[in-house]
Amino acid sequence: MALLNFKKKEAPATDASNPQVEAFLQDYSIEVMPRTAEKVENFRDLLPEGTRVYIAHIEGTPIEDMVATAKRLHDDGFPVMPHFPARIIRDKATLADWIARYQGEADVKQALLLAGGVATPHGEFDSSMQLMETGLFDDAGFERLHVAGHPEGNRDIDADGSMTNVTAALHWKNDFQSRTDAQMALATQFAFDAKPIIRWADDLAAQGITLPVHIGIAGPAKLQTLIKFAIACGVGPSLKVLQKRAMDVTKLLLPYEPTDVVTELAAHKAANPDFNISHVHFFPLGGIKTNATWAIHNGGPAAAPANA
Questions:
Q1: Which residue in 104, 118, 199, 249 is deepest, having the highest Cβ count within 10 Å?
Q2: Is the pLDDT of residue 228 over 80?
């Protein structure tokens, strides 16, 4: 019996001339880890000049590797924003040491503060708020502090599935913004459905939370890879978008691209200029080069010419 020959369909792409998407992708940021950064020969070939690069600090990663990655990116001309996960920092002395290393080696002036995914804290810190209360970032002259946002909640913080504790923490951080000179923003977990993201962002604004939102977007990746990361990261109801796609035999073998969610968010931003989502933050789950290429092809800024 002859095998059926299914011809693969090309994945849909956003029209690069779409001015809404082009505007939405300006000044995007992207996240790397030391081990993924090692696979990139030259970041300047991939990322636009001035792109903010977050460096994710996964439990077990030596601080020396984190600082070396920060130095490399800084030397290449990119502003670096390392993660400071509270639950893997043993004490105030350790935090001060990390800050000093980052500043001494890579002139770091911005940080993402978060609790981290560790169930049991390694020391005296349990939340990003405790890191902020040390005053060390202010003393060191940090200019920008980002904190975590969770459009679909976080079961580690609200085990009952509500948004009670997450929202209370955001109010605290919003108040902290008024007491410090640091520029602050929310960098969120990735999600796949624009409508609940919009509802969440609008609800924050209605509650008087004025922190701008840098919305997490998962970059292009194999569907199976994305589902694995989404489950591990606790992505909520929008995971159904991927599960529905996985049931469609015509799309199962095609890589996921964030075209739909980006296009819908961009259209909403264009229609509502005061909408509090200000930037896109990419999680390059299918690779940094793949993500950067997708951004360029869909209207984002291009990398600097090699001879620039």
A1: 118
A2: no
- For residues 167-178, give the mean pLDDT: 92
Q: Is residue 287 part of a domain?
A: yes
Cβ contacts of residue 175 below 8 Å, gap of 6+?
Answer: none
Q: What CA dihedral angle connects 34, 36, 41 and 42, to 10 degrees?
A: -70
Structural domain contains residue 237: yes
Asked whether the beta carbons of 294 and 45 are under 8 A apart, the reply is: no
Please state the rounded mean pLDDT for residues 4-27: 65
Per the CB < 8 A criterion, the answer to whether 149 and 170 are in contact is yes
pLDDT in tens, 121-132: 999 999 999 999
Q: Which residues pair with 111 in a beta bridge?
A: 145
118 vs 215, higher pLDDT? 215
Classify residue 241: in a domain, yes or no: yes
- What is the predicted pLDDT for the residue at 192? 85
Is the whole-model pTM more than 0.85? Answer: yes
Pairing of strands 183-190, 29-32: unpaired
Question: What is residue 7's predicted lDDT score, i.e. its pLDDT?
Answer: 38
Domain count of the fold of the chain: 1
Widest CA span in the chain? 74
Residue type, 243: Q
Tell me which amino acid residue 97 is.
D
Residue 93 vs residues 84, 90, 113: alpha-carbon distances, Å: 14, 8, 17
